[in-house]
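Quick illustration, no need to memorize.
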Amino acid sequence: MAMENVLLELTLEEKEHLKTYFDEQKKTVEDVIRDFILEKIEEDRQDLKILEDYEANPDRKTYSLDELDSLLGID
């Protein structure tokens, strides 16, 4: 499989913050960044599916957060 490099410019503070995270996760920089990107793509796909489902069923009852709180007794 052909691989490509990506340049990521960070401040020193950002670099140190990320290094701490990578060390805590016991993963390489490449693994963590790849995981984040793939997770973001999957989240976006799920959001799009929810939106498409909503648009395909405009008569479906929806609730605001306040209505939901009230229905669940979380006032």
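Residues 22-72 form one domain.
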